[in-house]
Write a structure and sequence with these properties.
This protein has about 290 residues and is an alpha/beta fold. It has two domains: about 70 residues, Chemotaxis receptor methyltransferase CheR, N-terminal domain (Chemotaxis Receptor Methyltransferase Cher, domain 1), CATH 1.10.155.10; about 190 residues, Rossmann fold (3-Layer(aba) Sandwich). Helices cover about 40% and strands about 20% of the residues. The strands form two sheets. A seven-stranded mixed beta sheet has the order 6-2-1-7-8-10-9. Strands 3-5-4 form a three-stranded antiparallel beta sheet. A hairpin with a 2-residue loop joins strand 9 and strand 10. The two termini are about 35 Å apart.
């Protein structure tokens, strides 16, 4: 971590964040989520956490961090993680993955499903739901009768607040800017106050659950996954957390299954032998 200024705000600011305060935020977030705070984000950290200080009637960041780490601070840890982790997402982001899913992966999955076998896809780090709903739309475009088979999408995120938003399936119309008119008509219904709602057939394919990818206990999935989307999530973890996640990913995908990762991410060197690169940031389990 590079050197930090002694404070993020002028002496007249409502709160003062010292170098020690930011360092403590860094360590708490790293422990809870595996995410590393960049020192350049100190002003952002200050702005977001001051909301919680005001809400709790606190005057110092040290008081807030003491509370977060106390026996009764478990619920506040949820707020801290939600405020300090990245939630940048959109429908059909990095669209080449969904093209590959429709054109190459779904035909094989449907062959498996028609034989009476289960098919499971996972959106790990799903944020507010755009990615898993896009996966569902892609499945329905490739096979309109996908719901006739045992095919389900699991969507998880460390942030329960994001999961709550995702489950509602309601988005501002400006969040649908990258979706074609045909897809809007097919997969969304008009909502209230400039919003749209994800259609029932899309929602029926997705189950949302909170999950910390770096939790000490094993992931709770009962069956190996056929496809995992874990994009633009692991890049924010420190090296030990990254290694843990890639190792568990390799164990969680059936042989021949698929892993889609973010454009700036790479599977760790120790796990490369588990996968073969089949496209842009698209891997198949060996």
């Amino acid at each position: 971590m590079s050197p930090l200024e002694s404070s993020t705000a002028p002496a007249t600011a409502e709160f003062q964040m010292t170098e020690g305060d930011f360092g403590r935020a860094y360590e708490i977030l790293l422990k809870l989520s595996g995410v590393k705070l960049d020192p350049s984000k100190k002003t952002l950290v200050y702005a977001r956490l001051t909301k919680r200080l005001r809400a709790l009637g606190m005057r110092r960041f040290s008081e807030y961090f003491d509370f977060v780490e106390s026996v009764g601070g478990e619920r506040e840890q949820v707020h801290l993680v939600s405020l300090l982790t990245t939630h940048v997402t959109k429908f059909f982001r990095e669209s080449h993955h969904f093209d590959f899913l429709r054109q190459t992966v779904v035909p094989a999955l449907m062959e498996t499903a028609r034989k009476g076998n289960r098919v499971r896809l996972w959106s790990a780090g799903c944020s507010t739901g755009e990615e898993p709903y896009t996966i569902a739309m892609s499945l329905l475009e490739a096979e309109p009768r996908v719901a006739d088979h045992d095919i389900k999408i699991l969507a998880t995120d460390i942030d329960p607040l994001s999961i709550k938003t995702a489950e509602q399936g309601v988005y501002r119309n400006d969040q649908l800017g990258d979706i074609s008119p045909d897809r809007k008509r097919r997969f969304f219904a008009p909502g209230q106050n400039g919003t749209s709602e994800v259609s029932a057939d899309v929602r029926a394919l997705v189950t949302f659950r909170p999950l910390n990818l770096i939790q000490r206990s094993p992931w709770p999935m009962k069956y190996p996954m056929d496809v995992i989307f874990c994009r633009n999530t692991v890049i924010y973890f420190d090296s030990p957390a990254q290694e843990l996640v890639w190792s568990r990913m390799a164990q969680s995908i059936r042989k021949g299954g698929w892993l889609m990762i973010g454009h700036s991410e790479r599977v760790s060197e120790t796990r490369k032998s588990d996968f073969s690169l089949c496209g842009i940031t698209t891997y198949q389990r060996q």
